[in-house]
């Protein structure tokens, strides 16, 4: 299977202490990859190195859909959307004054020629594009099970549905790679279950997804492969079954419990 994301020997230190040290991993096309690790393992730092919010001190991050590789470390975060990388940040905010549909439409504007402002001003040439975006946004809402919520205010949705809405917003940009930062954090059991089913559905559609998670149980059923960080190092990679049985992983999670 061909690869989509390649992280090679990436390091990043803060005040002389490595948050991520010499991490390499490759995500295959169509794969759901989880990156897990105990508190302070370096998960968020790795995510930020991929999303562009941090620049590595050493190493490279490359993105190569259909074998067209290019380095993305050093590119500003917004440049990723046009390349087909959609990112759902932890604690990402929805636009409170807007409906669910309008929130998703904002995501779609990332890939249009005219951009959000032109769309908002409704210049003549943009009306057709606007109608396409609206149709795409409704389709994205349908994909995440929120079609009936389209015209409700986004900020009154329960947290689980707000998370799904963020995924819909990301999907509307038609990504080839979806990055999710701790998508299950703060969700109740039923909401986690719904989110897990959503991510599984995207996998069945062939979307490549990489998610950072603290919770081993959440990713165990979803991920094709799991990468484990501990104290900034990539200590293990394998299927969820292999990871659960890995001595180094058990030691890293000692005291926290690999559930
Ligand atoms: N901006 C920063 N400045 C200083 N130190 C940082 C910064 N970001 C992360 N660190 C340190 O780097 C290490 C890794 O942190 P990081 O947040 O990446 O881990 P994590 O695996 O995401 O942890 P958690 O599960 O607790 O969110 C920690 O020791 C943290 O204190």
From TrEMBL:
Positions of the ABC transporter domain: 5-256
An MF annotation (GO) of this entry: ATP hydrolysis activity
Alphabetized UniProt keyword annotations: ATP-binding, Nucleotide-binding, Transport
Keyword Repressor found: no
InterPro entries (UniProt xref): AAA+_ATPase, ABC_AA/LPS_Transport, ABC_transporter-like_ATP-bd, BCA_ABC_TP_C, P-loop_NTPase
Pfam families the UniProt entry points to: ABC_tran, BCA_ABC_TP_C
Domain of life: Bacteria
Gene3D superfamilies: P-loop containing nucleotide triphosphate hydrolases (3.40.50.300)
CC terms in the record's Gene Ontology section: plasma membrane
Protein name in UniProt: Amino acid/amide ABC transporter ATP-binding protein 1, HAAT family
Protein species of origin: Thermomonospora echinospora
């Amino acid at each position: 299977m061909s690869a989509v994301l390649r992280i090679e020997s990436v390091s990043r230190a803060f005040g002389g202490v490595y948050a991520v040290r010499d991490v390499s991993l490759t995500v295959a096309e169509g794969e759901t990859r989880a990156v897990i690790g105990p508190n302070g393992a370096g998960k968020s730092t790795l995510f930020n190195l991929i999303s562009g919010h941090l620049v590595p001190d050493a190493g490279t991050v490359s993105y190569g859909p259909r074998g067209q590789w290019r380095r993305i470390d050093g590119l500003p975060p917004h440049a990723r959307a046009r390349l087909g990388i959609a990112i759902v940040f932890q604690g990402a905010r929805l636009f409170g004054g807007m409906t669910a549909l309008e929130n998703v439409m904002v995501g779609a504007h990332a890939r249009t020629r005219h951009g959000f402002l032109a769309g908002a001003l409704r210049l003549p040439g943009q009306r057709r594009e606007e109608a396409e975006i609206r149709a795409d946004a409704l389709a994205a809402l349908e994909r995440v099970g929120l079609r009936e919520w389209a015209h409700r205010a986004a900020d009154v949705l329960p947290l689980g549905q707000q998370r799904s809405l963020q995924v819909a917003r990301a999907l509307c940009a038609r990504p080839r790679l979806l990055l999710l930062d701790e998508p299950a954090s703060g969700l109740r059991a039923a909401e986690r279950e719904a989110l897990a089913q959503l991510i599984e559905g995207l996998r069945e559609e062939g979307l490549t997804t990489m998610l950072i998670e603290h919770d081993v149980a959440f990713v165990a059923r979803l991920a094709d492969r799991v990468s484990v960080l501990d104290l900034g190092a990539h200590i293990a990679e394998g299927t969820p079954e292999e990871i659960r049985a890995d001595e180094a992983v058990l030691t890293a999670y000692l005291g926290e419990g690999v559930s």
